[in-house]
C-alpha cells in the first residue's frame, strides 16, 4: 500500500521543490461528476416502475424509453469525445452536466402534456436529449484523466472515478424509494436530482482549467510529475490520427470488449428494477436492495481493479498484461455468474450472483479507461467515445431485446444472451495491448 500511495503522490528526484497537489482536487471533481452521472442514470431506472404505473406504460414502451437513451448515448459518444479533444473539457463538461440535469427534472412535466401518445413521445424526446448530453461525459473525463494524471496511476484514478459512479448508483435507490413514498410521487424527487447536477456545475466551472500548464496553482514539479513517461503530444491544435486509430488492433479490441460487456452490463442500470418487480415479483424493499447491492459491490471492484492493474504494471513492467488480465478474467467469470441466474429461485442466491456478475464486470472498468488513455493519449477522448459508443449501442439493442423477451414470457433467454456477450468480451480483451499508443514516441 505504501508503494501505491508513493506512486500516486509522486517524487521530486532531488529537485528541491515538492509537487503541488492540484491533481487531487481535479480527481475529486471527476469523482463527484461521475457520482452525479449515475445518480441521474440509475435514478431514472429506480423511478421507472413508478413512472410506468403512473402513466400506464407497457413493458415494450418502457423498452423504448430505455433504448432511446442508449441509442442517443452511444450515437453521440465519438462526437462528445472529439469535441473534448479539440475544444477542451472545462466548458464542454459544464454544458453537458447542466443539460442532462435539466432534462432529468423536465421528466416531471410529462403530466402537463395532453394525451397518452404525446406523453410517450415527450418522454422519448427527453430521454434522447439526456443521452446526448451524457454521451460526452466519460470520454471527456478520460481526456482529463490523460491530461492530469501520471501514467503510472491512471488505472487507480479511473478506478476511483468508476467507484464513485457505483457509489451514486448504489445509494440513489436507497434514497429515492423513501422519497417517492414521502412525496407521494416520483416527480418531485426528479427535480431534486436535477438540482444536484446544477450545484456541481456552479462549483466546478470557475476554478478548473483544461491542462496543468493553464492552472496557476500547479507548480513545475507537479507538471513534470504528470507528464513523465507519457507518449509524445503535439503542441497547439490537435488533429485526431484517424488512420492510426482505425488501423489499431488494440483500439478495435478495446471497443469490442467494452461493447460486448456493455450489452450485458447496461441491464443493471436499466431493466433490473423492473425485472425484479414485475417478473420476479419481489417486494419494493427487496427490489430496492437488489438494485442497490450490485452497484455497492461495484464500488470496491472498481477501485481494486484499477489498483491491481497499476500494481501488475509496476511489478512486471508489462502495461499490456497489466491492463488485459482484469478484463479477460473478469468478463469470463461474469459470463458464468449471470448465466447461472436462470436456474435460481432463492432471493439471497440471486442477489449473490447479480453482485458477483457486477463485481467481475467492474474490475475491468479502471483498466479499460486507463487503456483508453494509454493508447489514445491526446486522442483519449475520441477513443473513449468510440468504445463507449460500442457499449451503449449494445445497451440500446439489449434494452429492446430484453423488453421483447420479457414482454413475450421468455426472461431466461435474456440472461443466456447476456452471458454469451460477456464471454465474447473476455476473448476480445486478449487483443488489447496498452503498450502501443497511437503516437509511439515518448517525451
Architecture overview:
There is one protein chain. The chain has about 450 residues and is mainly alpha-helical. The protein is built from 19 helices and no strands. It has helices spanning about 1-10, 20-55, 60-75, 75-85, 90-105, 115-135, 135-150, 155-185, 185-205, 220-225, 240-245, 250-265, 270-280, 285-315, 320-340, 345-360, 365-375, 380-405, 410-430. Helix 4 (about 75-85) runs antiparallel to helix 18, helix 12 (about 250-265) runs antiparallel to helix 17 (about 365-375) and helix 14 runs parallel beside helix 16. The longest helix is centred in the N-terminal third of the chain and has 34 residues, at about 20-55. It is globular, with a radius of gyration of 21 Å.
Measure the end-to-end span.
29 Å
Q: How would you characterize the largest beta sheet?
A: none
Count of alpha/pi helices: 19
Approximate strand percentage: under 5%
What is the general shape? globular
Task: Please specify the SSE layout and strand pairing.
Layout: H1 2-9, H2 22-55, H3 59-75, H4 77-87, H5 90-106, H6 116-135, H7 137-148, H8 154-183, H9 187-204, H10 220-227, H11 242-247, H12 249-265, H13 272-279, H14 284-316, H15 319-340, H16 347-362, H17 365-376, H18 380-407, H19 411-429
Helix pairs in contact: 2-5, 2-7, 2-8, 2-9, 2-13, 3-6, 3-18, 4-7, 4-18, 5-6, 5-9, 7-17, 7-18, 8-14, 8-17, 12-17, 12-18, 12-19, 13-14, 14-15, 14-16, 14-17, 15-16, 15-17, 15-19, 17-18, 18-19
Please sum up the structure shown:
With 443 residues, the chain is mainly α. It is built from 19 helices and no strands.
Amino acid at each position: 500500500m505504501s508503494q501505491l500511495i508513493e506512486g500516486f503522490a509522486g517524487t521530486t528526484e532531488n529537485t528541491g521543490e515538492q509537487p503541488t497537489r492540484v491533481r487531487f482536487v481535479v480527481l475529486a471533481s471527476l469523482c463527484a461528476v461521475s457520482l452525479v452521472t449515475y445518480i441521474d442514470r440509475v435514478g431514472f431506472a429506480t423511478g421507472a416502475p413508478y413512472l410506468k404505473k403512473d402513466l400506464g406504460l407497457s413493458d415494450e414502451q418502457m423498452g423504448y424509453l430505455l433504448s432511446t437513451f442508449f441509442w442517443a448515448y452511444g450515437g453521440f459518444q465519438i462526437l462528445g469525445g472529439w469535441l473534448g479533444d479539440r475544444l477542451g473539457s472545462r466548458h464542454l463538461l459544464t454544458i453537458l452536466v447542466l443539460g442532462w440535469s435539466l432534462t432529468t427534472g423536465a421528466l416531471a412535466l410529462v403530466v402537463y402534456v395532453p394525451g397518452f401518445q404525446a406523453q410517450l413521445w415527450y418522454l422519448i424526446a427527453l430521454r434522447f436529449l439526456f443521452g446526448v448530453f451524457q454521451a460526452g461525459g466519460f470520454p471527456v473525463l478520460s481526456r482529463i484523466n490523460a491530461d492530469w494524471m501520471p501514467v503510472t496511476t491512471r488505472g487507480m484514478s479511473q478506478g476511483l472515478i468508476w467507484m464513485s459512479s457505483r457509489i451514486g448508483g448504489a445509494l440513489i435507490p436507497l434514497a429515492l424509494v423513501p422519497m417517492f413514498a414521502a412525496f407521494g410521487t416520483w416527480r418531485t424527487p426528479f427535480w431534486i436530482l436535477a438540482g444536484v447536477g446544477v450545484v456541481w456545475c456552479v462549483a466546478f466551472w470557475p476554478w478548473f482549467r483544461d491542462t496543468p500548464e493553464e492552472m496557476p496553482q500547479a507548480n513545475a514539479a507537479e507538471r513534470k510529475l504528470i507528464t513523465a513517461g507519457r507518449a509524445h503530444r503535439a503542441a497547439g491544435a490537435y488533429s485526431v490520427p484517424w488512420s492510426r486509430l482505425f488501423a489499431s488492433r488494440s483500439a478495435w479490441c478495446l471497443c469490442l470488449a467494452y461493447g460486448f460487456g456493455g450489452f450485458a452490463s447496461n441491464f443493471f442500470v436499466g431493466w433490473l428494477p423492473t425485472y425484479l418487480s414485475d417478473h420476479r415479483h419481489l417486494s419494493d424493499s427487496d427490489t430496492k436492495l437488489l438494485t442497490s447491492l450490485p452497484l455497492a459491490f461495484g464500488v470496491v471492484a472498481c477501485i481494486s481493479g484499477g489498483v491491481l492493474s497499476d500494481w501488475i504494471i509496476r511489478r512486471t513492467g508489462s502495461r499490456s498484461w497489466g491492463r488485459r488480465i482484469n478484463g479477460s478474467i473478469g468478463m469470463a467469470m461474469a459470463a458464468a455468474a449471470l448465466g447461472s441466474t436462470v436456474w435460481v429461485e432463492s432471493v439471497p442466491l440471486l442477489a449473490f450472483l447479480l453482485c458477483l456478475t457486477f463485481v467481475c464486470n467492474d474490475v475491468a472498468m479502471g483498466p479499460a479507461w486507463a487503456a483508453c488513455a494509454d493508447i489514445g493519449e491526446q486522442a483519449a477522448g475520441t477513443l473513449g467515445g468510440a468504445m463507449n459508443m460500442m457499449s451503449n449501442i449494445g445497451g440500446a439493442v439489449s434494452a429492446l431485446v430484453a423488453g421483447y423477451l420479457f414482454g413475450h414470457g421468455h426472461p431466461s433467454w435474456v440472461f443466456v444472451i447476456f452471458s454469451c456477450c460477456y464471454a465474447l468480451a473476455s476473448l476480445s480483451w486478449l487483443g488489447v495491448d496498452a503498450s502501443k499508443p497511437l503516437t509511439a514516441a515518448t517525451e
